[in-house]
């Protein structure tokens, strides 16, 4: 297929989403500006004290997590394919008087735009599904890590992406090891408060857990830890229930909603 067409389509959709997302309750932008962190306990617990560390945030959207790490003392660089997202991220950085740096590019082209080596490379929640092949992604991560550096991903579980959520109830439609692109066109976005409507046109790819772990291993990284979790910090799938910890789960806990991987460059 024409991957550049797919990337361009996705970029155009994400450019349209930025203003809608920034105005939504989901991203609580005004509270964020007043000091509220956008980070969740999974990534905070995994990465701990980031003071003085260089951190590269892949697919950063409009930079809230990047700037949250910056507020915690990290020297941060964020990368995203959306020009509108990077523009807003830069404006927020200036408004909040942080020193983060933002680069607009396809995440797979990161090494063509950034030569710095990092202590931490970070990505989270809804990122790898926009990539057709994880091997160049993993090679780029290895290129950008310092020796001894850490890569951390917390991401929605691939089983969750086997469902078609454009119908109600969701229908299990896509194979776990599906290699072909999934194209969806629908009204709305996951953050909307019932006001502005956009048409989302998206190409996505499913990646199994073996795809994720295998690509990192083939890139020369060492897996330090791997976990799966029932609870998601985001209520983004139908009919989830909030547990005692304030996380969202399936009513029957039939499969996990998240996984995380920590890998190290030796």
Automatic annotation (TrEMBL):
MF terms in GO: methyltransferase activity
Transmembrane spans: none
Listed Pfam families: Methyltransf_12
Matches recorded under SUPFAM superfamilies: S-adenosyl-L-methionine-dependent methyltransferases (SSF53335)
GO annotation terms (biological process): methylation
All residue ranges annotated as the Methyltransferase type domain in the record: 56-151
Gene3D superfamilies from the UniProt entry: Vaccinia Virus protein VP39
Entry superkingdom: Bacteria
Keywords linked to the UniProt accession: Methyltransferase, Transferase
Protein name: Methyltransferase family protein
Organism, scientific name: Marinirhabdus gelatinilytica
